[in-house]
Amino acid sequence: MPIPELQPTGERLIKEFAGSIVCEHLHRYALAAEFTPGRDVLDIACGEGYGSMQLAHQARSVVGIDISPDTIAHACHCYKHPNLSFLVGNCVNIPLQSASIDMVVSFETLEHFDQHREFLSEIKRVLRPGGLLIISSPDKKTYSDRSGQKNPFHVKELYHKEFAQLLNSFFPHTLFGKQIHNAGTGITFSSTMPRPPAQTLTGNFQTFSRDRIEEEGIYSIAIGSDAPLPAIADSLYSLDSSLRHAEETLITAQLFTASSPGDFCEERSLRVLFKPGTPTTVSFKHIRQFDPHPILHLRLDPSGQSGSLRLGAVMLKDARTGGIIRSFETTAPHGLLAFLPSMLRNPEASDSWICIDQDPQIHFPSLEADPDDDWDLEVVIEVNPGMEGVVRQQLMLINDLESKWKGASTRYERQLSDSRNRHEQSLAELRNAAEKRQQQCERLQADLLEKVSTIGYIQNQLTSVTDKVRRMQDSYSWRITEPLRYIRRSLFDRRIK
Q: For residue 140, what are the β-bridge partners?
């Protein structure tokens, strides 16, 4: 059975990601790993499994649980350790026995559903007395409100105060913090003196500004237990040399919704990440649930940069049933989709465009739907960014044309060979038929000659018989006529006397 390849949809981190998001996720697991020695650990909503594997190096046992069967199949295939296992399961119905776990790790989980209290109740159920929970979730204030962006995979984000209130209602001992990613440096002091909260300093050659990390941190993070908490140090995380200089290789596709063509804005948009250089099905889920305003117009920004673009199927689907509401033509010169003038259609491929500016846009025709309907938009897309992408696409087109030419040449040679074989077979069949006809003619000729010879013999026999009959007739005629003549003469003579 083939192992499903996880697509970079943005819903979960996969190892193909690069940049700040990798640093953020690995830092959280590095923090959790300090408390795993000798513990039975649950990594709930474990994703593709890289974090569970990190924890398994020191823990007594680690169980990674995720709701996606494909993700768990991928994790089981890619991450193997004697004390590591993976299960398919739900956050509000964890498939483990009560009081079977010493430590629960839950990173970027809460925001994906709204059953928060049920989730925390399940965590309390599986934890042993004195067990530890390390949990994180984006702070809605800095993650969404301040940026103006909405994550399509997030159902219910919490403000930091709401996050703290939720944890405090389940655990008597809690500690809260914030996580921030910034391109900068860190300064630490070794001192036993009380120190003020950590702060972020931002500036340039002219000015400086400072803020508390609690105000600037994008992610809320907490540790909770029904026993006193262990000592926890502040930390900085640095990627090693294999990841430090990795570039942001993923492409961001952005879907804008609006009530009129001029109302497109960042606040009413969805983003999905995908790999460049390969055809990928990009899905924007639950568009109508995301935007409560009337939606009559859609605009797709496929890459946010110049380069080459190929579009496959573009379909608007019913989010509940999966049925196709509308399919949009992309290859016809006068299709329903409208492309900016800066997007030049490639004359060598009707489904391909060259984007000469950094803001390619595709506008959809006006939509009409019941306000209660919910939509998914699926787009098969391939993006090759920059001029290298254009050159790469042209090379791909050349390779495609060469492949098509070779295929056509192979098919022509096969057809020619088949035609030659059929012709030779037909000639052989005609030759065999001619030979058979000639043999039949020769037999008929021989039969005819034999019959002619027989007829000649019969004619000769008939001639001989005819001659005999004629001679016999002549002989019988003399024998009869002479006596009659004698009798007539005698009678005549008597009359005269």
A: none
Q: Please write the tens of the pLDDT for every residue from 448-495.
A: 888 888 888 888 888 888 888 888 877 777 677 777 777 777 777 777
**Please, is 195 exposed, middle or buried when counting C-beta atoms within 10 Å of its C-beta (0-12, 13-18, 19+)?**
exposed
The DSSP output letter for 63 is: E
What does the CA dihedral 116, 122, 128, 130 come to, rounded to 10 degrees? 10
Classify the phi-psi angles of 270: left when phi > 0, otherwise alpha if psi is within -120 to 50, otherwise beta: beta
Rounded to 10°, the helix 116-126/160-168 angle is 40
The pLDDT tens digits of the residues spanning 13-45 come to 555 544 456 777 788 888 899 999 999 999 999
In sequence order, what are the beta bridge partners of 182? none
**How far is residue 33's CA from residue 134's CA, in Å, rounded to a whole number?**
11
Residues 366, 368, 373, 375, Cα dihedral to 10° = -20
Rounded Cα gap, residues 183 and 180, in angstroms:
10
* Cβ atoms of residues 315 and 328 within 8 Å: yes
H/E run at residue 42: strand 40-44
Dist. CA 468–CA 474, nearest whole Å: 10
3-state secondary structure at position 391: helix
User: What is the spatial distance between Cα 154 and Cα 145, in angstroms, rounded to a whole number?
Assistant: 14
In 93-217 the beta strands, taken as DSSP E runs, fall at: 101-107, 127-138, 173-179, 199-203, 208-212
